[in-house]
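Record 1 of the preview.
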Amino acid sequence: MNPSARTLPAVPPKLPRPRRVASVWLGGLLLGVLALGGVSLVFFFDPAVTPFYPVCAFHRLTGLNCPGCGATRGLYALLHGHWGQAWRDNALFLVTLGAALLRAGWLGLAWVRARPVASLIPTWSLIVWLVLALVFGVVRNLPVGAFLSP
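->
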């Protein structure tokens, strides 16, 4: 076989990676619609008197309050402008909501400025939140922390 007669296979051109902007926007829109629906449900139906909200399994089994107990009632109070009642229902929920809103604002600012973001939620902040939730869950069930129970 003649070496000059050998032809190299054609190499397909490199295609640009598809941008996933449409799927990100669609996912964000879907998440926003679901969140708006959930918040609307809590706004119009009081969790303290409406029976279709789920009951905390941890509280039902142990009689103790988990770190999330009272969060739905706290959201209801917050949506109706009762900040003090929301704080009494679940202080950890309000702190977490505030931190999440601050993080969302920071990520939005980074997106507007076209700056890269290492992660959506840094690992260290998750560890801090888990320790805080554990301490909150224990303290709210002690006599000294009874003011933290809903």
